[in-house]
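Deliverable D4.2, example record:
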Amino acid sequence: MNKVLPLLSTCCLALFACQSKQPPTNSRIPVNLYRAKTQNVQYYEQYPATTAALNQVNLLPQITGGVTGIFFKEGSTVKKGQKLYKIDTRIYQANQDAAIANLSIAQGNLIQAQQDADRYDYLNKNNAVAKQLYDHAIIALQNAKNAVKAAEDAVKTAKTNLNYALITAPFDGTIGFSQVKIGNVVTSGSTILNTISTDNPIAVDFLINEKLLPRFKQLKDARLHPTDSLFTLLLPNNSIYAHIGKISIIDRAVDPQTGSIRVRLVFENPNGYLKAGMSCVVRVHNQETSPQLVLPSKAIVEQMGEYFVYVAKNSTPNSAKQNKTKSELVAVQKKVQLGQTIGPNVIIKDGITVGEQIVVDGVQSLHNGSEITTANVVAPGQGGKNGR
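Output generated by the structure prediction step:
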């Protein structure tokens, strides 16, 4: 037992000595850097949009009655004046016949009143009739004329109602599914029979921020000399629509609650690929000709709706630099304003300058003031190569 204790003490001392000789752990975070630079870029600004008909109307009956005829194929193209629906005409035909008969009676009464007035006028001139009888004859003549006018108006109304029994297309367009069937009773001014809309050309509406209004106003004013492919359309299947659009209308006012305003484009639609109500994306070609500062998107950090990058700064004092002490780097967080995303990159509008060294790999491990190193770069799976 006495021999074992010294042996154990010797082993513990040796082990402690070995551990004390291990080099200290390097606390600097390995990163890859990218030198910020400008370049010419081409891109499209994208806006969610919805297609809309330039002209659309709901067909409403102007008389009440049962539907007796439907004369079109649902979803087909119809021409202006084409017969679409017919409402039972029997009541309205009878009303017209009665109005015409009443007109004939009123016209007969007018002839009789005219003859009486002429007779009493002759007698009155010769002082052969009482003045009162003459006055009554003149009044009766005027009443007869008024009765004829009222009867004529009644005939016009009856004919109009009879004509309303036949509903025709108000313009060239595409008609939808019928909302009524033969035999349904429709009510004047309330029952929707169908909807007709134009589809060539077709409108595309989208919203822009009020800050962009001056730019789009310039684009609208310059439509006589449009830039090729200025407005294009991304369809729901992610294909590019074959025709190029042009700006048509900028709404009259900005929505004060959202700070946005509606813009309308017009696209040719000869094959009917675009239907009213479709969701699509408007692409506005970039008109910026000056070089833009571009960074890899992986360098951007989002915090509470704001965006930041980490800039590598030299932490060595000037006196140490003069003594040729090795430079040491720290990560300094800077707030940036983002522009358009272009593939894996993003345009930086403000916050950093050309030439600054930006951390592009290893940002998840950083905070403001973290000590960093490029000696042991991040593995390729976590980022790109070290920026030059």
